[in-house]
Amino acid sequence: MRILIVGYGSIGARHGRIAASLGMDVCFVSRNEACPYPRLDSIASALHRFMPDRVLIANPTAEHADAVKALRDASFAGAVLIEKPVFDSLDTVPNTDAMRVYTAYNLRFHPLVQELRARIADKPLFCASFRAGQYLPQWRPTTDYRKSYSAKRAMGGGVLRDLSHEIDLSLWLCGPAVRVAALGGHFSDLDIDSDDVFSTLSTNARCPVVSIGMNYLDHQPQRTISLNGPDLSAALDLVAGSLTVNGETLQITAERDITYRAQLEAFASDDVSTLATLAEGIEVVRFVEAAETAAAAQSWIKP
């Protein structure tokens, strides 16, 4: 299988390494001379010369729509996986024509998330909480955080988009959001122009009270989910690698590549049992925009 990856940043490099380990033939569209794989300077050239079976878009969020348009203009009709968030706004969503498009929310593939989803499969939920935070300068220790896309709103940065795994998981586990309220913005002394703190409250189809908190500020990284339902209390800590359900704890130390590898395997076989669809990726963008509107208006918003 030939896979073309658009963008050789940290996440593109990870996808390339894992794809190669799975026996895929890898090529990049990138101007980064550090890229150790075959490299071409445009999508049109890569489609003509490399003839990929599948394309993975891993450039900055604000450039995703242009990459999809370039694929469409070159009549690519294969499968495409777009890194999260799928687009920076609903206004930029392009026509995908005959392409099969998916969104890269790899945390769905974590074995503890899979176990949690199985435990709540047939149960109603009363309340749910999702939390994620990490100090932005710690994310990429070899890179000046002020120069990263995370720091720049125009490039699709900010916690609402950067940490949108939590939004995706809330919709995946609790159902579509019916209404959203939010508080958030840039409150810290980080030298960025994107939002560094956001908290949302929503009513979802499966759960009447869902809260999400995310920030760029936690010096001790956290990523947790807690759910309550009839005869069910579940607490998932992805940093500690533990899932506790009604007092019984399952501990799994999952190496970091496991979710990316499982996601690439699902992408290679068009297996949407866990892989996020384009529609699901767009629902996350819809939630993000509703949260921004709700925070600005200080009112409930219907996504």
Q: Could you write a compact summary of the structure shown?
A:
The chain is an alpha/beta fold and 303 residues long. The protein contains 9 helices and 15 strands. The strands form 2 sheets. It has an 8-stranded mixed β-sheet with strand order 8-9-10-7-11-12-13-14. A 7-stranded mixed β-sheet has the order 3-2-1-4-5-6-15, with helices on both faces.
Description:
By secondary structure, the protein is an alpha/beta fold. The chain folds into two domains: 2-104, NAD(P)-binding Rossmann-like Domain (Rossmann fold); 108-254 and 277-297, Dihydrodipicolinate Reductase, domain 2 (2-Layer Sandwich), CATH 3.30.360.10. Helix content is 29%, strand content 27%. The chain has an eight-stranded mixed beta sheet. Strands 3-2-1-4-5-6-15 form a seven-stranded mixed beta sheet, with helices on both faces. The longest helix is centred in the last third of the chain and has 20 residues, at 278-297. The radius of gyration is 19 Å and the shape is globular.
